[in-house]
Design a protein that fits this description.
Layout lengths: L2 H29 L1 H8 L4 H20 L8 H24 L5 H9 L1 H12 L6 H18 L8 H23 L5 H22 L9 H25 L5 H8 L2 H13 L5 H18 L6
Helix pairs in contact: 1-10, 1-11, 1-12, 3-9, 3-10, 4-8, 4-9, 5-7, 5-8, 6-8, 6-11, 7-13, 9-10
Length: 296
């Protein structure tokens, strides 16, 4: 038996493990929507992001800071670029929300699920297989049913949030490209620190600091910084080498499903019939894509 055939079961098992851990990341991010929304209603958004990512960077520095020394300058630059994409996603989303509804912004952000395989084909010549494309289509329709309102007319805010979707798609692709080439945890520290610095600079430029920080805001930043930022992005950067960018984007499409579930149980929010069908289509899209692992 050829070596590649011997390693095929191990590759598939590692991909399954990676996809499962990325699903946990999507669950973690979905669980924070209620907390973050309640927090930023009473505290400046960029100040909260700065606090959240600073706490995450501090934790990663304590645990993995020494590993940054092993990064090749090229990989350090890659970490800065990945951090810029990540910051751009949050920045475009935050600004766009001032001019469009949260539901439309949620769907447009979710378009990264479609953008990733398209960019993969155009930029790095990695075309997804039919199962992945079908899964992406099902997930996209599901997100539309879950998040869109009756008014579908585009606005300036919609176009701004579209920049967010492209940034998150580029972030996923960049992690897939560079994480296998270097220390993934050191790369995580660089990108998280980049977001913390950029968020702090924007906060200073807009006079967005508010002192003292309320205890509730600090605990929210601590929770999201440790769990939804340091841990979540460390997992993503460490395991995405075993799966594809298309699979990652598709799995992250479950984030609004988890957000809806936590909203239901923690904030008393209710899904419409269309929203329930949308959740089902997103989960079906995942299952379809996993029937035959994509090689992209």
């Amino acid at each position: 038996m050829a070596p590649c055939e011997q390693n095929e079961p191990l590759r598939k098992f590692r991909q399954w493990q990676a996809d499962a851990l990325l699903l946990v990341v999507a669950l973690i991010w979905g669980s924070t929507f209620v907390l973050v929304r309640q927090t930023v209603l009473h505290f400046p958004v960029y100040a909260f992001l700065s606090l959240r990512f600073t706490l995450a960077a501090m934790m990663l520095f304590v645990l993995f800071g020494q590993r940054v020394r092993t990064l090749h300058p090229r990989m350090f630059g890659a970490g800065l670029a990945i951090g810029l994409f990540l910051f751009g996603g949050y920045a475009f989303q935050t600004v766009g929300l001032q001019y469009t509804s949260a539901s439309k912004a949620g769907f447009i952000t979710g378009l990264s699920v479609v953008i990733v395989p398209c960019l993969s084909g155009l930029l790095i010549k990695r075309m997804p297989e039919r199962q992945a494309l079908l899964g992406v289509t099902l997930a996209t329709v599901g997100m539309a049913l879950l998040t869109l309102e009756r008014d579908l007319s585009p606005s300036r805010g919609d176009l701004i949030v579209l920049g967010c979707a492209f940034c998150f798609a580029l972030h996923i692709m960049a992690v897939s490209l560079f994480a296998p080439q270097t220390d993934a945890l050191a790369l995580t520290f660089v990108q998280i620190t980049t977001v913390a610095v950029l968020s702090g600079l924007v906060t200073l430029a807009t006079a967005g600091w508010r002192w003292p920080v309320p205890s509730g805001v600090f605990y929210a930043a601590l929770f999201t910084g440790v769990l939804a930022t340091a841990l979540a992005f460390a997992i993503q950067n460490n395991v995405q080498r075993w799966t594809s960018a298309t699979h990652t984007a598709l799995i992250f499409a479950t984030e609004p499903v988890f957000a809806a579930l936590f909203g239901y149980f923690l904030a008393g929010e209710r899904l419409t019939k269309a929203g329930i069908i949308g959740c089902g289509l997103i989960l079906l899209g995942m299952i379809v894509a996993e029937l035959q692992p994509s090689r992209t």
